[in-house]
Amino acid sequence: MKKLRILLVFMLVISALVFSNTGELDRSKTLIYTGGIWSPPSSWNPIVPWNAVAGTNGLVYEPLFEYDPIAGEIRPWLAESGEWVTKNVYRITLRDGVKWADGVEFTSKDVVYTFNLAKDNALYFSNIWDYTEKIEALGKRTVLVTFKENPRYVAWNNSITDVTIVPEHIWSKMTIDQILVAANRDPIGTGPYKVSRVTQDRLVWERLDDWWGNNVFGQPAPQHIVARIVFSNNVILGSIMKGELDFANNFIPGIPTIKDRFGVKTYYDNAPYMISWNTAMLFLNTNRKPLDDVNFRRAIAFAINQQTIVNRVYENMVAPSNPTGLVGTNWMEYYDEKVVEEYGFKFDPSEARRMLNRAGYIDRTGDGWRNAPDGSNIDLTIIVPNGWTDWMESIRSISEDLRAVGIKATPQFPDTSLYEDRMYTGNFDMLINTYGSTISFSPYTYWSWVGNERIDGERATTGNFGRYNDPELFQAIRDFAYLQPEDAKAYELASFIQKRLLQEMPSIPIWHNGLWMQMTEEYWTNWPSEDNPTGLACGWAGVWNKGTIRALIELKPAK
Amino acid sequence: MGKYFGKKFIVYVFTFAVAITINWAAPRFMPGDPIQSLLNRFGNIEGGTEIIHSNFSQLFGLDKPILQQYLGFWKSIFTGDLGISIHSFPSPVFDIIKSAILYDIIIMVPSIILSWIVGNNLGAISGMKKKADNFLMPFFYFLSSAPYFWFAVIVVFVFSVQFGLFPVGGAYSSTMIPRFSFNFIVDFLRHWFLPFFSMFLIQLGGWAIGMRNMILYERSSNYSKYMKALGSSEKLIRNYGFRNGILPQVTGLALRLSNIIGGMVMVQMVFSYPGLGYQMLQAIMNQDYFLLQGCFIFIIILVLVSNFIIDIVYMLIDPRVRLSYSEEV
Q1: DSSP string of A76-135, one letter each residue
Q2: Which of A 17-46 lie inside 8 A of B, CB atoms?
Q3: A358-384: per-residue pLDDT in tens?
Q4: Is A385 domain-assigned?
Q5: Whose C-alpha in A236, A317, B232, B256 is 20 to 30 A from the C-alpha of B13?
Q6: A 514-543 residues with CB below 8 A of B?
Q7: How far is B53 from chain A (nearest CA, A)?
Q8: Residues forming a β-bridge with A275
């Protein structure tokens, strides 16, 4: 009994303590978000960006140009301007007065150093040296890029917006081996923030008040940014409803329902609420029977009801894809309506049945499932990673759609690593994936993913997981990369690529995942939205420098 | 005595070697490629992944012959260098475990020990008093069979969302900076309480039911009946019953204590509380061989040490064990 009493006293003490609370960071000047970091922060190395903490690129290291996916524009950032001097010479003029966080002046030597790093070593942007002759500094503020005969314009446009510049005076002191494994705990960049505190479940960024961009773009409003690791939806939902989080970048079921009651903001006020950010593709293994038959593949496309997935799984928080899978300002530029009208597909189960009947896929055994023309059974699987609940529901829905037309396709949920292994080695029937379909400045990135030509090895990791082989298509995609965006030839090729992909249907675009942005107005207002396109409120890696910093500059304290 | 420990020691060393070997081998038999899943997180690499892939394989020594990797692993155990995490590259595994394990300990150890003490006592009361039993038992059964995930979400809903007494999750407020100040300690305890309390409650039922059944069993034994016939007090009978009934509970306690890392996973999921359990789950999902090995070495050591302690405790509380070894009965 005595122990019970001690416990009771203990609990009373705890609950007495409950009612006092004072913050240490000034909440009204602090921005708190979740959804960007998923494991304890461990690296701030911009040279190894897939491993760096979200925010390293953008908050600390900055690119020469900024890509704005909403407006579909490339705008100067560290650079003041960039222009083609001749067909294969590009001149970059840098801004005046840009300084590294340690006070050293930012010059053209830093830019040349960064790009040359990828020349001598295998880095994520080394491919620019496939088509680049040399990159040299002309004085402090000019960089001259000379390409081999034909520049790959598309890839170059990606490089100037994705590659962030590192300071030569710091990184040149390290060997490449040191650079690759550096955690870079106190990164020195040109950006508006620095790392302040790192713990198990959060990372605190602190504003640098003498950022060069203050005079050019304006000063980001939050003094501190706290990136929280929150892995449970119920905690995120609870924190959003209480206004404890300023924004969250997770897919949270139920947002449309609670949105108005708890004052949660989304980019669009109504469905689809979120900006379409990538295309979820259903890859079909073209090396396996009966998926090697184009008629069968096209019939599948007609059998799938995208709207069920959009309504039931995503509660209208995503948009269904058009038949080409193209999305976003820049890609839609090339969308060919005529091609879609002629070769596209739409949900039409009776058409799917007709197509299957015509191609000889009929039920020969009387078990209710269709058989292949040679009489063999059709027993397919669809895989997505276990635990990705929205995708899991989606393939259940697809499986039901296919059952309705008599095709047996069972959903399966292997662990992520096994799923990826089967995807890369071509050991699957059907699967859903989005890894390479994030919207970008050119649909080339998307096509070179769905129509990736590197499919001969044991592992195909860069797309086209169904290993659809079509040299003509590959050539067209390759050629597209060498054209300026507005070139008439580019439009021609784009139409050809769309047509071929629809005719052959090696993969089926289903829906567009959203850039999940859920914002609250307890402490900050003036969030980006359809009517107030100030940028993005997303803390994912690679998105900070595509609009989030611009949005931070426009934020207003609520009180 | 010496013979007892000598025998035990050999068993422990053998167990350790086998467990460590399985621990090393199991992740490597998993299909998939850890380096590839590391690279996957960056979708935009166009070409060149093979070279980066081989760079990293070399770095982690995954290109070496399998036997060499195994021997290197044993060496690393004795030098304390557990390698670098693949998933949280380039953090050393030891640092990750060091900074995470504290969170597991502060939630799990108090909740296990307190629920054990309180549960055993309530169970003993329940076993002795029919009236108490009538209302305590349904409560215990509810606690022990409620799924933790569901139970904890309800606890959060009631205490955090409905009454707003406690925060929803995390180890401390977003605006807090860890330091030794009154505000921080208070904030930390507020965040600590619900994870602890939910864990305490959910374990309480099992201990209480176990103890109650042991007491009932002991009460029906001959020595209890004889004591009763001699006119001993209920309390005395209960105390003797308790001393016998506690033995299996002690074993259970050891098993529970050695499972603090695994037992913490759900707490972390519900409360987004930091700790090693979730990290381990991530390590499994991402095939982070080195972090997995590190976690398992920790768990193995924990299991062996707690078993060893229990062996010693048994010598103290169970005269049969003591006598069988020291006096060669």
Answers
A1: ESSEEEEEEEETTEEEEEEPTT-B-TTSPBP-HHHHHHHHHHHHHS--TTGGGGGTEEEE
A2: 17-18, 20-27, 30, 32, 38-40, 42-43
A3: 999 999 998 999 999 999 999 999 999
A4: yes
A5: B256
A6: 541-542
A7: 10
A8: A515
Which among B178, B295, B85, B272 is positioned nearest to A199, based on CA atoms? B178
DSSP 8-state assignment for residue A53: P
In a domain, A211, yes or no: yes
Q: Is residue B58 in some structural domain?
A: no
Compute the nearest-CA separation of A445 from chain B (Å).
Answer: 8
- Which residues in chain B have their CB less than 8 angstroms from residue A18's CB? 165-166, 190, 193
Residue B285 touches chain A, beta carbons under 8 Å: yes
Residue A139, chain B, CB below 8 Å: the answer is: no
| Total domains present in chain B | 1
Q: Which two tokens stand for residue A99?
A: 């300084």
pLDDT in tens, B137-187: 898 999 888 898 899 888 888 888 788 888 888 888 888 888 888 888 999
pLDDT of residue A18: 45
Q: Are residues A33 and A167 in the same domain?
A: no
- Kindly state whether residue B43 falls inside one of the protein's structural domains: no
How far is C-alpha A255 from the chain's CA centre?
Answer: 21
Q: What is the DSSP string of A397-416?
A: HHHHHHHHTT--EEEE---H
Q: How far apart are CA A349 and CA B39, in angstroms?
A: 39
**CA-atom Rg of chain A in angstroms:** 26
Q: Do B100 and A244 touch (CB under 8 A)?
A: no
Interatomic CA distance for residues A420 and B327, integer angstroms = 61
Q: Is pLDDT larger for residue A439 or for residue A231?
A: A439
Query: What CATH number does residue A128 fall under?
Result: 3.90.76.10
Q: Is B279 on the interface with A (CB under 8 A)?
A: yes
Nearest CA in chain B to A181: B90
Which residue would you say has higher pLDDT here, A177 or B184?
A: B184
Is residue B45 in some structural domain?
no
The residue of B33, B46, B160 whose CB has the most chain A CBs within 10 angstroms, and thus the best one to mutate to test that interface, is B46
pLDDT number for residue A12: 58
What is the average pLDDT value for chain B, to the nearest integer? 84
Query: Is the Cβ pair B173, A20 closer than 8 Å?
Result: no
Q: Which residue of chain A is at minimal alpha-carbon distance from B41?
A: A50
Residues A287 and A236 in one domain: no
Cβ(B215)–Cβ(B249) under 8 Å?
no
Asked whether residue B254 is domain-assigned, the answer is: yes
Question: Which domain, by its residues, includes A547?
Answer: 2-38+191-273+518-557
Same domain, A294 and A405: yes
Q: Specify whether A208 is located in the same domain as A109.
A: no
* pLDDT given for residue A238 in this prediction: 85
Cβ within 8 Å of residue A139, ≥6 positions away: A108
Per the structure, the count of domains in chain A is 3
Mean pLDDT of the region A549-555: 96
Contact A417 B287 (CB under 8 A): yes
CATH code of residue A381: 3.10.105.10
> Which residue in B247, B250, B290, B221 sits closest to B77, CA to CA?
B290
- Can you give the residue range of the structural domain that contains B106? 2-31+64-328
Share of chain B above pLDDT 70, in %: 92
pLDDT of residue A20: 41
| Residue A302 lies inside a defined structural domain of this protein | yes
Name which of B40, B85, B153 is nearest A234 (Cβ-Cβ). Answer: B153
Q: Return the residue in A124, A237, A413, A442 with the most chain B beta carbons within 10 A, the one to mutate for interface testing.
A: A124
The lowest-confidence range among A103-112, A136-145, B45-54, B186-195 is B45-54
The tokens for B80 are 């304390």
Q: B164 contacts in A (CB within 8 Å)?
A: 242
Residue A338: inside a domain: yes
Q: Are residues A225 and A296 in the same domain?
A: no
Q: Which of B38, B149, B175 to mutate to test the interface with A (most CBs of A within 10 A)?
A: B175
